[in-house]
């Protein structure tokens, strides 16, 4: 098995794992200030088409993005300064 095929195999296994998707959903909820949701064994690769959710429901907030963006700018400014 070549490295590319091994890589594709491992990525495929990771994306099929319900635990990986649960972990990613929990991080997404924590970053965006949503309450964590549990979809059980339901694995959907389209987050906008889950049962009980409206199609094209907005999942992130501009405020969350703006606060993360400003935090990254501050970190970049600190990194660039020489003491």
Anisotropy-based shape: flat
| Overall average residue pLDDT | 72
Number of domain modules: 1
- Provide the succession of SSEs: HHH
Strand content: under 5%
What does this structure look like?
The chain is mainly alpha-helical and 83 residues long. The protein has one domain. Helices cover 58% and strands 0% of the residues. The chain contains three helices and no strands. It is flat and about 45 Å long. The model has no long low-confidence stretch (mean pLDDT 72).
Topology overview:
Elements: H1 3-16, H2 18-32, H3 62-80
For this entry, give a set of tags.
mainly alpha
In short:
It contains three helices and no strands.
């Amino acid at each position: 098995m070549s490295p590319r095929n091994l890589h594709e195999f491992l990525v495929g296994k990771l994306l099929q794992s319900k635990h990986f998707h649960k972990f990613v959903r929990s991080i997404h909820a924590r970053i965006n200030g949503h309450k964590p949701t549990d979809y059980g064994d339901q694995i959907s690769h389209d987050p906008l088409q889950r049962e009980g959710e409206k199609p094209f429901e907005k999942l992130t907030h501009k405020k969350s993005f703006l606060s993360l963006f400003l935090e990254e700018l501050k970190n970049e400014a600190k990194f660039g300064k020489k003491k």
